Amino acid sequence: MEKSDDKMLIVKHCRWLIVLVVFLLMAGTVRADDSVQPMDTPASEGEDADYYDPFDKDDGTLYDEGDGSLETVADPMAGFNRAVFTLNDGLYFWVLKPVALGYSYVVPSEIRVCVKNFFFNLLVPVRLVNCLLQGKGKAAVGELGRFTVNTTLGCLGLMDPATIYPTLNPPEEDMGQTFGYHGIGNGFYIVWPFIGPSTLRDTIGSIGDWALNPFSFMQLINLEAGVLTSSETSVVVFGVRTINDTSFQIGQYEMLKDAALDPYVAFRDAYIQNRNSKIAQ
Amino acid sequence: MTHKTIIYTWILLFLLILPMIAFSMEPMEIIQGPIDKVIEILNSPKYQEKGTKSAQRAEIWKIVKPMFNFEEISKRTVVRKWRSFTDEEKAAFTDVFSQFLGNTYVDKIQGEYHNEKIVYIEQNFHSDAYAEVKTKIIRDTVETTVDYRMIKKGEASWKVYDIIMEGVSLVKNYRTQFATILKKESPAQLIERLNKKLTEQNKRLSENG
Questions:
Q1: Residue A70 burial (CB < 10 Å; 0-12/13-18/19+)?
Q2: Which of A4, A11, B31, B74 is the least crowded, having the fewest Cβ atoms under 10 Å away?
């Protein structure tokens, strides 16, 4: 009697094991089934299925215009752009990089981080307004929250105590992205001296962003704030910011350039891809 | 069939399945394993001395290379023109392009590594064949997102077919460049260009030790 009870117990346990195994197997198939369905679309397109990338949301560059070119953006002034690209490249290697290296040698990274944080905090109107223009309420609240925390606890924005809270760190918005979000295309590609790659849309956008920057805003509304609103100050601010930001990015430009067969085309494509991904965010 | 046989069949089945589950590596593990090893090599005191750079580069390349499916990468950068490549040209292109990518990026990793922190965010599956591993590189206050797109072909393990840095796909970036070249030149000429770049690169790298 006792023995058969034991047997029953074993059988009972084994049943649970079976249920568990079956459950695990089913869970496995369910997960696979869940994700499989969009596969059939590319397969029907024949040979292009070979280049199919399920994670690529806009595979426009796969399909050429018939002449073999895979342009990600119109570039009617390519000749001018290439010349400015060469100029900027020279400026980077002969001016900006040596200055930024010297600067980072003299100024410890703790202070450079403070400088970066301070300017970033000051430019909150640009990001906030563009969050609102895109109807991103959560991000706007995040921007305001970060500004409040960093201006108070972070000593006027020199420090970034808000960095540990994901909700206070929304993706950075600007007016070019706002235009893109509302369906406005790039127009065409432009390389600006000193400033670098842009497009018609992003150039117009940066004029809007410039107006939202506190210094220029004071100028625009004719608020007299002495040294703060002088044009020398804005040039100095631009220079310091560029050098300070570059001190954290030395090597990045060189990497993309060395990895390229045609650096001009590589940077143009990287700019457009990066902007597209930011607009999609 | 008795209950016993059913149970034994299940146990047997379970034992057969178990090793399959245990040995098929997750995409994230395939990324994380080699990267951890590379960081170890970068920090290793063995390579802090002068003249060890090329040995270090070779060791890093040995670890990183198996992570990638270079044939897939090559095919995806050339796209539709891939059909006009002969089998020899396909092999030659894949070989020179993978060496060129390896040289370029391993050299940069060696030169630019400053104790960056790597955060492995998540892995997403699209199907049994496609997966994406999202990571972040943190340096001082600068964060760079790096996504690895991976493909699983048959019984082979997951391999990277594209890297997306800050939203910029490596494959698509080369695609626009190669398209510009292939518009005017033949596949052989493109391979020749890459070979020339690789030779220059090798010369420069060996000069730097």
A1: buried
A2: A4
CA-to-CA separations, A236 to A90, A111, A278, in angstroms, rounded: 21, 18, 29
Radius of gyration of the CA atoms of chain A, in A? 27
A24, HSE (Cβ side, Cα atoms, 13 Å): 12
Residues B15, B19, B21: CA angle, nearest 5 degrees? 110
Query: Which residues in chain B are contacts of A70 at CB distance < 8 A?
Result: 79, 175-176, 179
Q: How confident is the model at residue B156 (pLDDT cuts 50, 70, 90)?
A: confident
User: How far apart are the C-alpha atoms of B84 and B89, rounded to whole Å?
Assistant: 9
The ipTM, to two decimals, is 0.81
Q: Is A248 on the interface with B (CB under 8 A)?
A: yes
Let me know: does B151 contact B161? Beta carbons within 8 Å.
yes
Is residue A275 within 8 A of residue A180, CB to CB? The reply is: yes
Domain residue spans of chain A: 1-13+56-106+185-200+218-281
Would you say A150 and A117 are in contact if contact means Cβ atoms under 8 Å apart?
A: yes
**Count of all residues that appear for chain A in the document:** 281
- A47 with B80: Cβ contact below 8 A: yes
B75 neighbourhood in chain A, CB within 8 Å: 50-51
Q: Is the pLDDT of residue A1 over 60?
A: no
Q: How much is the average pLDDT of A226-250?
A: 82
Give all strands (DSSP E) within A141-195, no chain letters.
189-192
pLDDT of residue A73: 87
Per the CB < 8 A criterion, the answer to whether B129 and B153 are in contact is yes
User: Tens digits of per-residue pLDDT, B50-95?
Assistant: 788 888 888 999 999 999 999 999 999 998 888 889 999 999 999 9
- The mean pLDDT of chain A is 81
Mean pLDDT over residues A186-197, rounded? 93
Please tell me which residue of chain B has the smallest CA distance to A19: B10
- The whole model's pTM is what? 0.80
Dist. CA A184–CA A204, nearest whole Å: 12
